[in-house]
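Now for a chain:

_____
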Amino acid sequence: MKKVIAFVLAAVLVCLTVSALAVSGPSKSELTPFKFEKRKDGIGLGTCPVYSAPYSDAYRANNGKASCATNSYIDIGGFERGWLFVRYETNNGSWRVGWIPSKYVHDVKTPMTPHFTYIRQVAGETIDVSDNNLSANDRSSIFWTLRPGDEYYVLAYYDYYGYDQYYIEFSMYGQTARGFIPMY
């Protein structure tokens, strides 16, 4: 009888653990969506460094050398603390989202302003983080993998042709980073 009770208690504990790990993230109603404004002729600032988050010590893709040419097509999502939120095409034809430091964008004007909400989450499973919000299937854009137990913050959501994504902030190698994960 003791073995049966121990087994039942263990099964209940496992079920509670699994359900705690499978907690869904915030709903769209708790978050603000954001968009990008297309700038066919760019913003005319030459080549600028791009960071994954609006901080000078944030993660920077391409081995710390991520940059974008701003004299041609670029999408802008607004400013946060003077940093410009951008989506740009890379040399290999994929897209990347990031932040250009304020010292490069002081003359740029836009009505776009992203509104972010920090909702703390803990990964219940392995989650790939991408910097390409236009293609969930672009495996080359995955730059980090959150592991079960990793903490992150959901900032907003982005819906591109029905593929809903959270825009999140997290820490990697002691650096702040931002990216996209599927909504769950």
Remarks:
- The helical segments are 2-21, 61-64.
- The longest helix spans residues 2-21.
- The chain is about 15% helix and 40% strand.
